[in-house]
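[job 4471] stage=fold_predict status=RUNNING
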Amino acid sequence: QVQLVESGGGLVQPGGSLRLSCAASGRIFSISTMAWYSQAPGNQRELVATISSGGSTNYTDPVKGRFTISRDNAKNTVYLRMDSLKPEDTAIYYCNAKVDKYGLGNYRDYWGQGTQVTVSS
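[job 4471] inference complete, writing structure tokens
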């Protein structure tokens, strides 16, 4: 099996920063794209940022210039640095990884359990 474990969420004031981490473990041959999603109360889960195995990144417009996604391939870990946080960033943040377990080129999606980020004064 493959497990993704997130950490780093919490309560922060507007304008503050947080760093989320997500470590993948278990039966892993390789990981291609890793990503962060957010889900605010009453809303669907939405893409925040992605990073390829080679380090290419993409961000959705609401977080461009404020969030930074990065990864450590040796540790199978993806990070999300969140700066200049706004109350509308409040959500549960989930990490996602496309994992090939056996080296056959069959990548499947795996998800973390989510970590709460609350931006409030």
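[job 4471] summary: The first strand starts at residue 2 and ends at 7.
[job 4471] exit 0
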